[in-house]
Amino acid sequence: MTSLPAGVTHIDDPADPRVADYFALTDVALRRVLEPREGLFLAESAKVISRALQAGHRMRSLLLAPRWLEDLSELVSACVSDGVPVYVAAPGVIEQMTGFHLHRGALAAMHRPVLKPAGDLLGAARRVLVLEDIVDHTNVGALFRSAAALGADAVLVTPRCADPLYRRSVRVSMGTVFQVPWTRLTRWPQDVELLRRHGYLVAACTVAPHAVTLTDFAADPPGRLALVLGTEGDGLSARTHAAADVSVAIPMAGGVDSLNVAAAGAVLLWALRTGATQS
Predict the structure, then answer these.
(1) Which of 19, 40, 274, 275 is 20 to 30 A removed from 125 (C-alpha atoms)?
(2) Does 46 share its domain with 184?
(3) Which of 85, 111, 137 finishes a domain?
């Protein structure tokens, strides 16, 4: 291998303990155990890493293949200047190490932030997205991207919802998980009362026949609104339906009864975005 820039370390053993943060990333259960305890999450690609850094997250180390050293030279130099370890390994070594092919240039181990209490996010917000027990990391990431693009002020995830900082969620969100304020609720659906205390109307997004259509609801939306989206397949729980102030359904055609939860979230946020009726 050609000489490396100062401060960059070559790794040829996929079991090297210096890169233990990157081991066995395809084992979702293992990452759920390790990441909270170690206080880490993983960011993939230069764009996502840059967004994390811009949002104030701290990098623990950087891993990349040799071919990306030149393209990502500014990121590498910044890491070296800040004393952040930079590791370079052949693609095959990285794949053995992580369990997947790294094709987006770089992977960074980042320190997890301390999540704020939900009440701290609700004071200044007007549109809030609540994700109830959504288990697919791709859907979680896509919902965060829609939240950022369509003006949601915060995202709240329930205790059993998939981790927004899991690598796939972060990647699908294109780093917008660092842009939209979010936190994890501790008591759901009891925390519906917390939303009400902050002046929110709580809308259960559903396919139930008794629901108000999105067309009618969007004609006169409330000033503060919390949209609650349910898990894939089963949708919202009966307890959440009972606790909500209103049920809202997207009108369907073509014999289709519902949309994927990420698609539904985008439609709802667009229709109910702040100022939508004036634009």
Answers:
(1) 40
(2) no
(3) 111
